[in-house]
Design brief:
alpha/beta; Rossmann fold; six-stranded mixed β-sheet; four-stranded antiparallel β-sheet; 10 strands; about 25% strand; globular
């Protein structure tokens, strides 16, 4: 589903953020990207979403080499990619419902279908009763769940998340990761960047470790005892 083939990314005037990286995330898999700040985690996710393009090498998502996509094809690609960020990037001048509905409106979906899918996504993250609230009226955990609803409302095949629990306490972090696990169980391929190794350990998924822009290891960690999904 996601494949990097000898990918190097160099930003203008900077060192290589990624150097000859080859990784693969299978369809339906949940994998974590870990590593210290500056290791290249965010760059990997930006390449998947075509926010950036590689300097060398090839990124393939769902069988499509992204290097062959023209500028006009990028929006359609991103509709297949749900994105969740640490700062959630919600619009505080709009309601929870409007924040989640926005990707569908941009895609030109009909109003009735927008309503059905938006409320289904809000219900999936436990926020249906908050649909009229602006994000600033929600708790930190609710805001992050709202960002996840927005990411999944377009029914993406792939969901990527960049430090989605970085601003949350341990209990809320576990809540968010458990929600990701449930989404993965219904077939969404997931790649999550996280520095919280204890949280990653609890879920027993494959961990791709980056160090200095290179893959230092890729393995599956044993799930901690007593942690459910």
């Amino acid at each position: 589903m996601i494949r990097f083939e000898n990918v190097t990314k160099r930003y203008d005037g900077a060192r290589e953020a990624l150097s000859n990286v080859s990784i693969e995330v299978a369809a339906g898999e949940l994998a974590f990207l870990t590593g210290r700040s500056g290791a290249g985690k965010s760059t990997v996710l930006k390449l998947v979403a075509l926010i950036e393009r590689p300097t060398r090498g090839q990124v393939i998502v769902d069988g499509r080499p992204l290097g062959k996509l023209g500028y006009h094809e990028i929006p359609a690609h991103r509709q297949q990619i749900g994105m969740v960020f640490q700062d959630n990037r919600l619009l505080n001048d709009r309601s929870a419902y409007e924040n989640v509905a926005l990707p569908l409106i941009i895609s030109g979906i009909g109003e009735r279908e927008i309503g059905r899918r938006t409320r289904a996504a809000l219900d999936q993250v436990g926020l249906l009763d908050r649909e009229k609230y602006p994000p600033r009226a929600l708790s930190a955990g609710e805001q992050q769940r709202l960002a996840i609803a927005r990411a999944i409302v377009s029914r993406p095949k792939v969901l990527i998340a960049d430090e989605p629990t970085g601003n949350l306490d341990p209990d809320l972090s576990l809540e968010i990761m458990t929600l990701f696990r449930r989404l993965n169980e219904v077939g969404v391929t997931m790649l999550i960047a996280s520095h919280d190794l204890q949280l990653v350990q609890k879920f027993g998924s494959r961990r791709i470790v980056l160090s200095g822009g290179q893959v230092s290891s890729s393995d599956t960690v044993d799930r901690a005892a007593g942690v459910g999904t």
